[in-house]
Amino acid sequence: MHFQLDADTATYRDAVRAHLREVLTPDFEERIYRSGVSHNDEFAKGLVDKGYFAPTWPVEFGGQNRNAWDDQVVKEELMRFDAPMYLSETTRMVASIIREVGNPALRDRILAGAINGEITIALGFTEPECGSDVAAAATRAVRDGDGDDAEWVINGSKMFTTNGHIADFVFLLARTSPDKPKHQGLTMFLVPCDSDGFAAQAVWTLSGERTNITFYSDVRVGDEWRVGDVDGGWQVLGLSLRDEHASGWGPHLIRLLHHAEHWAATAVSDDGSRPILNAAVRRRLARVAIETEVSMLLQRRCVWMLDQGDTPVAEGSMSKLFSTEALERSSQDVIELVGADGLRGYLEPSAPERGRFEHSLRFSLGTTIYAGTSEVHRTIIAQRGLRLPR
């Protein structure tokens, strides 16, 4: 087992890095920050043109047939540069599910557009009253008609439908059999966002990101938009949660450490010295560096397992849990290190490192909720990894 990149993958990573340095200018970064929306059509299509959007997909679908390590370095660099990728990532994830379990007509209709940047898909899982218990979804889908003319009438709401106000579709979990146990009466749909009865209302997060609550009022979709079997939604959802739960946030730590080291080497203390000369400063930086290294190793273990044909379950939760809590710890540590100036925001001209320390602190708090809360992942590690009883 080793997690070092071979020469070809390192060269590929360097090309991705050079592209991101070219396109993610300070002006572009400020526009994204002000909007609170982690998506930009032009940027996404630029990745498509370069072959960085879905590198592991087959060539016939617009990919490059690259291996899991090439795919990983693309993800790492995009995260390290804080690129506006969330809608692109959810689109690619849902496209992978449709490719695996979607009907032929749906694959023909969605896959090419999703991989060339023409179609975008947001996630509609969580509901206002359900929290992390996704299977408790109360949004209803009732079948109307039979055969090819059958439609589903959807009523309900979803919380945290990030990018639902600009996406083309929402990948929606709905209850189709309320008389069955909650995990057995769910079905997945792809709901066009231009449907009558669909609405998105902005919800602003602590980090300044816009998410949405989306509403479905007698929204009608044909049966061709169903993904997977009727009442088989929990199994389909499991495919997406498998990918989400194996996420790692180490590259955000890399960026934080880079700026903290730059601040320590260039700022001037009251006595005229550089902070880096202080042993206590170096000790804090070393602590962040250790958290970063462990986070990256846990994530790369998941990639290694996938490359070996295994599915990381508890290992994916370990990666997600440790890296997000490490990001929160390290962000607080750096703020304490820098002092009150570290709380100056991104748009404040006098903020050290252009306000990235303050933003990292706010952003880090949400990462322990995204893709499953820390409590959910501890449960997965306990039950699936340690085989402990429920």
Task: Give a quick summary of the entry.
By secondary structure, the protein is an alpha+beta fold. The chain is built from twelve helices and eight strands.
Tell me about this structure.
The structure is a single chain. The protein is of the alpha+beta class. The protein has 12 helices and 8 strands. The strands form 2 sheets. Strands 1-4-5-8 form a 4-stranded mixed β-sheet. Strands 2-3-7-6 form a 4-stranded antiparallel β-sheet, with no helix packed on it. A hairpin with a 5-residue loop joins β6 and β7. α4 crosses α8. The protein is globular, with a radius of gyration of 22 Å. The two termini are 32 Å apart. The model has no long low-confidence stretch (mean pLDDT 93). It comes from Mycobacterium alsense. GO terms for molecular function: flavin adenine dinucleotide binding; oxidoreductase activity, acting on the CH-CH group of donors. Belongs to the acyl-CoA dehydrogenase family. Keywords: FAD, Flavoprotein, Oxidoreductase. This is Acyl-CoA dehydrogenase.
